[in-house]
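Kindly inspect the following:
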Amino acid sequence: MSLTNSKLEDFVVVGINHWNAPVAIRECYSLSGNQRETLLEAARAEGFENLIVLSTCNRTELFGITPDYKNFEALLIQHTNGDAATFKSHSFVLHGEAAVKHLYKVTVGLDAQILGDLQIVKQVKEAYEASIKYNLVEGEIHRLFQSIFRTHKRVRTETDLGYGAASVAYAAVQFARKHINDWQEKRILLMGMGKIGKVTCKNLVGLGASSLTLMNRNKERADDLADRYNLSVSGFEDIVDEVAKADLIVVATGAPHPILNKSHFPTNGQAHHQVLLDLSVPRNVDTDVEELEEVELVNMDQLNDATDESFKIREQSIPAAERIINEEFNGYLDWLSEQKVVPTIVALTQKLHAIRDEELERYRHQFPEEVIGRLELVTHRIVNRIAAHSIDHLKANKESPEELTKMVESMFKLERKSDIG
């Protein structure tokens, strides 16, 4: 769909997130990096022109421009492990202004499980850059994301929505502090050195964790982090021994299936109370672990920081963040409205200059060359001034740009191009 033909109501977001689907459902529709690449490649091959795919631990959402949101639904279901019936029961779809504002709110952290989430903007940028790679970002979407990233920066600098360490990793550590006595003296096993794992590690060390062991498929990544904080590293071949010793286990790997299950825990009477945090989507801990009396299993849906003092400060910033979103969104709407008249502006400017050139050519032989040079300069300025006044009027008329452009096109007999760019 070309820039000049699309309208605000053509913007759509379709997806599934933590507000309407538990982690057991969300994980069926999550996308790994490779899966997202495959989806984007297929979308381009099928003729999609504007599509952003955002997949995080709490949401999988497709945003873009399409005449029928079911196009996006079919694409997502085709490239994930979920079925159409389940998706229909737990998904949502937003159109027009609601769809666009949703993307603003997601990026600044207003729609996050952890209010003001610091990580989500990075994930949105990655989704945006991935779509650029597959030529799935055209004029309107590109301009929208510039507005969205500017909004995020304003919210961070003009409000306290980012106060404290607002992230899933932070919420996980706060949960551990509240559910484990003298936790700083406890043994901790951290599995996974991805983004959440690294931030969790940093938070644990910052709060004084003294016995922390790292475990990762890529041992070099674990070694680098261990060297930085003077921690221990263990391989997956020692998983049973490390699990048996740990009081707190944090699992945050990118594995597409469970890597920890009931068989990894002590069954010989030596079991002790353990807190197990599964920060992965898809989940990395098998649900059979819930059968163990001494293990307290916590997944993403059970984490929040609503009782934390920093949350209350962030919560007070919601109105200010929403005001900034509205300001930036209205600015984007102004730009979007102006694009409807751009082809008419181009055609009008070309027509006026064509008239000028035609008249100059008719009388060129009647004047000396130096006079013709002056006439060219003067008439060029006259045409530009007339065009400028017309352009200003076209841009200012945001209420009914289609009617005005049709009148101008009829008046000057313009033949405008169907696309710009």
